[in-house]
User: Fold these one by one.
Assistant:
Number 1:
Amino acid sequence: MRHRSLLILTSVLATGALTLTACGSRSDDSKKGGDNSSGGSKTTVVIGVDAPLTGANSATGLGIQYGVQIAVDDANAKNLVPGVTFKVKALDDKAQPATGQTNATALVQESDVIAAVGPLNSGVAQSMQQVFESAKMVEISPSNTNPALTQGKDWATGTKTRPFTTYFRTATTDANQGNFAADYAVNTLKKKSAFVVDDKQTYGAGLAGIFQGKFKSLGGKIAGTDHVNTGDTDFSALVTKIKNSHADMVYYGGQYDESELVTKQLKAAGVHIPLMGGDGMYSDTYIKTAGQAAEGDLATSVGVPVETLPAAKTFIDTYKSKGYPGDYGTYGGYSYDAATAIIKAVKTVMDANGGKLPSDARAKLVDAVQKTDFDGIAGHVSFDQYGDTTNKQLTVYQVKGGKWTAVKTGVYNG
């Protein structure tokens, strides 16, 4: 399921640190601009992708891979950057931080790889950011939501400092998502008490903590808290705790792989209360696995429903017609827009260099991406001073009739 391209491997070791700046496979530098319109050669530019393509979280990970692939195919078909052929190199991080770091190292060592899209998981991103920063290579995640990735570890105190200038994201943060969910739970669902569970991962624990804090501030009671391990399948002890707590809802911080089993076992034990989670839970796979038990459950996700966006119609039609695996609805549109931001930045850098890719293209791309400003298929694409998206839209979905149905879209204004 990986798209592999013929790449030129070049690594330069300087003062113990890997620093690669030359990008692009130039088949004939003597042909000015590399325009292929009259038979001239083209420069190959590769966009890396890192996501879980097998195992846990792979449904959403594959949606990221093929969202990027469609953007690249569109750019090539429309000749958006004259003289350039874009390709994709997708690596599987299996949702593991150590694997993500290895993949990041592999991508920066490929001289043709100019930037990367991904990863899916915030915990994996933490292991990759320094690698890309050291290589002066842009990384745009379509799905990371932990605020510390862009705003630093003290963001919650109001002290925001951007740790890495090369890191960007097209998804809004959990500071917005967790609060948005809690507001909906209290003011729309009228829930009085919540049992909060997380998977101990960077994303899940962070999101659950934000929800918990906001739920309490709005007058809700936290009936209990607990943690699970990724990969767990037997949640009988947790179900007993939730049942005995008499909570009227469960909030789960983590991915669909575990939450789909939690809700199934919860309902089987006669505890018919809704389970709510974040964008890591918003996947058709959740409903397929949980079955009838998923009915009434809720999830927040970034942006507005991609199916309702006219600009995304061609993207969705292409994804379906190609028979690509995975869930395009969660991050597919944001992945397409992340790749498009890179493609547009490549054009900007080349236009400023007489139509040729400069030897320090990676470094120049950082500034070009920072100045991104265009209407994407999933909304407007631009980045603030922290590298965060300026698109703060969020949606609450509820399982109705075996399908995720949007019940509220808006921006958190707490």
Number 2:
Amino acid sequence: MAEVMTYRVPGMTCEHCKRAVGEELSRVRGVESVTVDLDSKAVAVTGEHLDDVVLRRAIEESGYEAV
């Protein structure tokens, strides 16, 4: 059964930010979809067996920080 994990990423300000975060998270094993909302600075990750540490690291790898 898929689970959803949501993060606030306040440093995202544009479409490039949205794409960078989305692409990095999409590479994580188990991730089925990523939804990024620039207005609320929210990122929702849907998938199976998601690991919070791995997802936060992926966000950091894209150049941003999840709070």
